[in-house]
Amino acid sequence: MTVRVASYNIHKSVGPDRQRRPDRIFRVLAELDADIVALQEVDRRFGARATTFEAEQLEHETGYRLVRHAVSPLSSGWHGNALLVRGVVEAIDRRRITLPALEPRGALLADLETEQGRLRVVAAHLGLLGRYRRRQAETILEAIDSAESHLPTVVMGDLNEWSPHGSCLRVFRSRFDIAQPGPSFPARRPMFGLDRVITSDDIAVQSAWVHETSTAREASDHLPVVAELKVLAPGETAENAPLQTHAGVRG
């Protein structure tokens, strides 16, 4: 039994054609068939930062439920980040993480009850400047360490890290395993793996891939990334469930 997670920067529901079409985002989410999804850029950037989709519409169209972190009734996310769950997955605890940056940045942390037991999920969208990305990664690890209990943990999101040797990746790699499913940006001709899934050593990434379909190429400037995770039993090692990186889901 595995938990399927996904991360998707929806670019405020605006596709490469510059049309704001949340219906296309909903179709991509339905294609993902994930249990847990981290979204970035769910709200407009300026003004009241109003949402680009309504939670009720999202659930009606896709079956996903929004884990509430927003501080404004007009927003679906916090600093653009949102977590979605569906099926039997339920949030049992949640908190917001303020990240150091020149521009407002944040991350979300939620403890979720899944069929494999409790899982801690952090959803993040890191900044554009490398020196801040490193500090943001350190802040996320500090937030994980400050939690009252240890749980298997997955961090996912748009890290804005163009280099596989970037400083924020070195911070995460000191403690966690990093799966790069493949190039996810720009959507129409992906060349850079900005979107990643990062796991603690008590989770095995059984497979990871970029979800590249015709709908996804038109819905946002990023493609979603997806991973199948297995929470390891005490004494079990990740070698029993090695990483398989797919060439991508195409259509």
From TrEMBL:
One of its GO terms (cellular component) is membrane. GO terms for biological process: GPI anchor biosynthetic process. InterPro entries: Endo/exonu/phosph_ase_sf, Endo/exonuclease/phosphatase, GPI-anchor_lipid_remodeler. It comes from the Bacteria. This is Metal-dependent hydrolase. SUPFAM superfamilies: DNase I-like. Pfam families: Exo_endo_phos.
